[in-house]
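Action item from last week, closing it out:
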Amino acid sequence: MLTAELHESAALRAELDQLKAAIGSLSRELDAAGREAGDVRLLLDQALLMKGALERELGHERLRSAIRSRLLADIAAARSWRRRGAIDRSVRVERLLAS
């Protein structure tokens, strides 16, 4: 009876050692996953900042495009004796847009 209890005790100790090793392995994997999640979170934050900057730049470009469209429409609609003034205004505005 004593040997059966010793075998059972040894088996339980071996199983306990396996469980401790598994817990240690899972802890290391969890730490690695946490670091990877932090890296991914950093990349996501950078991507969101870049998206915001690109959206602002797109808004500015759309505004510039609308201004240029209006200037061209003004040139096209101007009578021949007023066309020079519309072109000059367009040149001045274009300089402002470029700066």
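Closing note: The chain has one domain: 2-98.
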